[in-house]
Design brief:
alpha/beta; Nucleotidyltransferase, domain 5; four-stranded mixed sheet; 11 helices; 10 strands; about 40% helix; binds 5'-O-[(R)-(carboxyoxy)(hydroxy)phosphoryl]adenosine; binds zinc ion
């Protein structure tokens, strides 16, 4: 069964075709990073307009690159939640229209659940050259989901059957990477920028705090971000009320690299500490990481070092936003729940992952 996935929840317009929930046939991603980096972050109105311009060619390219026509597509899966409302509307409207005109079943996918399913792609068509995991994860599966909007630990008992163990009580870890990058003067998106210069930095130069939470699986990253701001102010000899956007220019490259490395070390250790606590408590058969921050090499290294089972990682390009993960999850939904009505599907900009979103579409 071939599922066409469509993703437009933030600043990537993406479409992909995945067969039987594991074989990637095409993967097209049009990134808007070059447009938004001038503003230091995603501008929602610009994102929506840019999606409109490219959504149809991106979808058509995914169908063509999969080596077939619309006749070969068995179902469509689209991200309907969560995300920027204007961005979500473009992808869902395209998907609804195509489902109606081509008469295909439509599955409405939760973006964050989708990130987890990047780990289920283990094969690819000859024209693609990603380094993929060799085996699919097994249940029970512990997922560490770390993106620009989410930081959470989720225990999956089966497809569509999961329990949220804990989540961030304030900023997501990707958001913290992006904000710290801004403070120390590194370009958007902050995650890859920090990871790059951290390679040159001393990760123990600055002492930064780890938040203590009541629930052992909850996270908090806003205190860490503020601690970096205070340490930069102290390093530059400036008071708390000094304009934060003027601080970066006062740092030299060595200080900048050391701040990046010290922040990354504490952020990564915090993520892994809690993942390890959850691993010990629940003894899952597999551990996966998902979301944009899962592209972080330091996180992968630290997790593999501290979790006593082998972890296979999805390629970086399937960790950041893409539609292959949406198509993959769409396949597993199609095996379990009825398709959604293309005439009435609505977007849900804020939708947490406290319990499975699949039940919303059950008949
Ligand atoms: O999953 P994603 O592409 O979009 C959301 O759904 O949020 O995640 C984007 C986030 C951004 O905060 C970005 O800075 C972060 O992922 N990110 C990274 C890396 N690559 C992307 N963070 C740390 N290290 C990276 N290599
Ligand atoms: Zn995402």
């Amino acid at each position: 069964m071939k599922v066409l996935g469509i993703e437009s929840s933030c600043d990537e317009t993406a479409a992909a075709v995945v067969q039987d929930g594991y074989r990637l046939l095409s993967n097209v991603v049009n990134s808007q990073i070059d447009i938004h980096k001038h503003y230091g972050g995603v501008v929602p109105e610009i994102a929506a307009r840019s999606h409109i311009e490219v959504v149809n060619p991106v979808i058509q390219a995914a169908v063509t690159q999969a080596g077939g026509t619309w006749d070969d597509i068995d179902a469509i899966a689209v991200t309907y939640a969560p995300g920027l409302i204007g961005s979500l509307l473009v992808g869902t409207l395209a998907a609804r229209t195509l489902a109606i005109t081509h008469n295909k079943p439509l599955y409405a996918v939760h973006h964050v659940e989708g990130h987890v399913y990047a780990n289920f792609i283990t094969e690819q068509a000859e024209h693609l050259s990603l380094t993929l995991p060799k085996n699919q994860p097994k249940f029970p599966m512990l997922a560490l989901i770390v993106s620009g909007g989410h930081s959470q630990l989720v225990l999956f008992k089966n497809h569509g059957d999961y329990e949220l163990l804990g989540q961030t009580q304030d900023d997501a870890v990707g958001e913290a990477f992006d904000k710290v990058a801004k403070i120390i003067g590194l370009p958007y998106p902050g995650g890859p920028s920090i990871a790059k210069v951290a390679l040159e930095g001393d990760a123990h130069r600055y002492t930064l705090p780890k938040a203590r939470m009541q629930n052992p699986y909850d996270y908090s990253f806003s205190g860490l971000k503020t601690a970096v701001l205070r340490a930069v102010q102290a390093e530059c000899g400036k008071p708390y009320d000094f304009p934060s956007h003027e601080l970066a220019a006062l740092l030299n490259d060595v200080q900048r690299n050391d701040f990046a490395a010290s922040f990354q070390r504490v952020a990564v250790e915090t993520l892994v500490d809690k993942a390890k606590t959850a691993f010990d408590a629940y003894q899952p058969a597999s551990v996966v990481i998902a979301g944009g921050v899962a592209a972080n090499q330091e996180l992968r290294r630290e997790l593999s070092a501290r979790i006593p089972i082998a972890i296979e990682y999805a390629p970086m390009s399937l960790c950041t936003d893409n539609a292959a993960m949406i198509a993959t999850l769409g396949y597993y939904m199609s095996q379990t729940v009825a398709p959604t009505d293309p005439y009435s599907l609505e977007v849900v900009p804020s939708l947490s992952m406290t319990k499975t979103a699949w039940s919303r579409h059950e008949t």
